[in-house]
Amino acid sequence: MTEITAPKSPVTTAEFADEIREQLKYSQGVTVEQATAADVYVAAAKAVRNHLADAWFTTQADTVNGSTKAVGYLSAEFLMGKQLENALLNAGLTEQFDEAVKSLGFEPKAIVDAEYEPALGNGGLGRLAACFIDSLASLGVPAFGYGIQYRYGIFKQTFDKDGKQVETPDYWLNNEEPWGHIDYNRDQKVSFGGEVVEENGKKVWKPAWSVRAVPVDYLVPGYKSQRVNTLRLWTAKSYDEFDLLAFNKSEYMEAVEPKVKAENISKILYPEDSTKVGKELRLEQQYFFVSASLHDAIRVFYPGQDKPDLTTFPNKITFQLNDTHPVIGIPELMRILIDEYGYDWDTAWGITQKTFNYTCHTLLPEALEVWPASLIGELLPRHLEIIEKINDQFEAELAAKGVDADTAKDMAIYTGDAVRMAYLATYGGSHVNGVAALHSQLLKDITLKNFSDAYPDKFTNVTNGVTPRRFVKLANPRLSDLITEGLGTDKWLSDLEMLEGLVPLAQDDEFVKKFAAVKAANKHAFVGFAKDHYGLDIDENTMFNTMVKRLHEYKRQSLKILAVISKYAAIKNGTVSADDILPRTVFFGAKAAPGYYLAKMTIQLINNVSKVVNNDPDVKGKLAVHMLPNYNIEMAQNLIPATELDEQISQAGKEASGTGNMKFALNGALTVGTLDGANVEIRERVGADNFFLFGMTVEEVEKQYADGYDPAKYYEADPRLKQAIDLVADGTFSNGDRDTYAPLVSDWLTKDWFMTLADFSSYADIQAEIEKLYRDPLEWNRKALLNVANSGFFSSDRSIEDYLERIWHTGPLA
Length: 814
Ligand code: CR6
What we know:
- Keywords: Carbohydrate metabolism, Glycosyltransferase, Pyridoxal phosphate, Transferase.
- Pfam families: Phosphorylase (PF00343).
- Its cofactor is pyridoxal 5'-phosphate.
- This protein has two domains: 66-81 and 117-462, Glycogen Phosphorylase B (Rossmann fold); 485-712 and 751-793, Glycogen Phosphorylase B (Rossmann fold, 3-Layer(aba) Sandwich).
- It is built from 34 helices and 22 strands.
- Residues 1-8 have low confidence and may be disordered.
- Bound molecules: 1-deoxy-1-acetylamino-beta-D-gluco-2-heptulopyranosonamide.
- The site of 1-deoxy-1-acetylamino-beta-D-gluco-2-heptulopyranosonamide has 18 residues, from helix 6.
């Protein structure tokens, strides 16, 4: 990797303080004396943004004028997290900021904390997109992130007195948002509905209504690359402010209807994760941002040209489809090329197929989007015609390849009543990738097997990664300093595999003790964070054991809570002696999709186990459980560095990759996990001795399904499990009420689709091994350090390099 020395236009502390003062005065309209932390945050954000402007313009110019193909990352979600610290780091202004802010009489941390976290994503997929655009900029690759500026991000989570999840809207734009630049002059028109007619032998779409897509540009600064890319998020505006005729008749609600309808499109992020939601509005959102983005790319790369030569389009930009959400882009590009620019079908198809690539992020069949043809026909009639024609062509191609009729039928993109978006993406693009080695293999063997048989060369893998700038440097400054000390350089931040240089230091007891001291300090800091944010009193002399991720049955928070209950019961019964108890604090963080009944009930159970356990004097100092509300990036940045044991316990074959697992390993937690997703690769790299493996393999899971899985058998066989489930059933965690968790208990005993019960015994058994090691702090920390040293592979920089080589075939700007 080329080392480019960073920041342009360095400023002194005094100059930066002046810039903040100016922003306060001329843009916020307050004096330094009047300013609050929130004012200073906005002023500092604008000041740092100004510093990035020149590099942003140069990057844009080089992107358009150069010969390096750009990357367009089409994603319905970008879960960015707070921006200020990251922008300062990448602009090389952190120290100036700290000093400047102090000179103005503020604490730097208070200013950074005043930012409201933008939460335009659900979980892993959205955060991955944010890590990828950070890495693209840091590697100097010209790129655009394209998505939606939702007015409401993922809901805010609180709990009611019964421990149930309560969702409240996340109105993040209620606060001044200094990063996004709204650009009314580069808008796009996006149309819907109506009909297709024939005019002079040509198909002409006569849409019924249109919305105005207005771009909001976010700067994406690279770390030490001097490059600043663009994240362009579209917001929907109405062409008709209101209907004056209706207004004059006092029909006020009717008068604003068109505006409301248009603006609804970018109003809210669907709070679903790995689940299919077939909603009309969701399809509108997808088409809205994809259509605007494709037109925008043509505008950017062929400025001022009425008749651009779009056969060169795939040389200008390659579009990555982040899951199926943007797949409507395939028929949309066909439509643009044929209807708007007059290309013939075959030329248009050649361009389209070269332009797109598809990343699949799931193994759950229900999470692959399938749209009713009637809905597409109503909303996008021309696109449905194009999809039908793509399907005809596909069928002919399969027949020519000798694929039998039954198989071809199974592979249909268009079934007559539905459109399978994953199949459309697989056929309509050049490459398909999964997000971890195991996942990509299972896609080929199971989910997309027929496609892999017919088009083996399309399939590849790119294992996910996370950005070390946010998730090590910013989240864990103490560890970062120690790594820099150990390696004698901070270059590891742009070349994470350099962490391997720490391997020999794992044999140096003094270094391991320093590493242990970092963890202890992070735990101490988290205790303060938890006190401030949640009012909790946490005992830092306990093992910090964390499970944070979306609440989903396949992730098996149930397994963890049942193990906690079983431990609680053992302490209560005196089955374990006081000396044998390893004090633990268990942290959960998880949002459940609002309509996901069993997931919400699991949250309620965790909250009530927490209430009972934490208030029971018999287990005081030995076991505590906390369900932390509203898991988000900020919490991740604080909790992950403080965690000692991380839970990655999904049923084998269900978690496509996971990225939390990578963040924990890089921050020196040991993992207890199954052979699932990227756990497999983490374990391979950190070493089997430094990973707590338990549970069934994919093959064993498949065999159980085939043989007819019976969860009750496991309930009867392991008294620990039986006791835990009985305590849930008998009302111990519901004030004696036996009905509260009856649906959950019944699901466990009769269905248990993700085989929590079958894996319980091996999960409970491995706890002894975990606790034994924890009692030897030097050995524990040695292994934790080896996790850090061997996890450099999981940088999103490496993921991007894999995409460049295997899929995009492009590279950094010259
Ligand atoms: N839920 C996968 O489930 C993966 C991320 C990013 C997910 C998870 O294992 O790490 O994508 N899938 O690749 C979807 O969102 C469909 C996720 O975040």
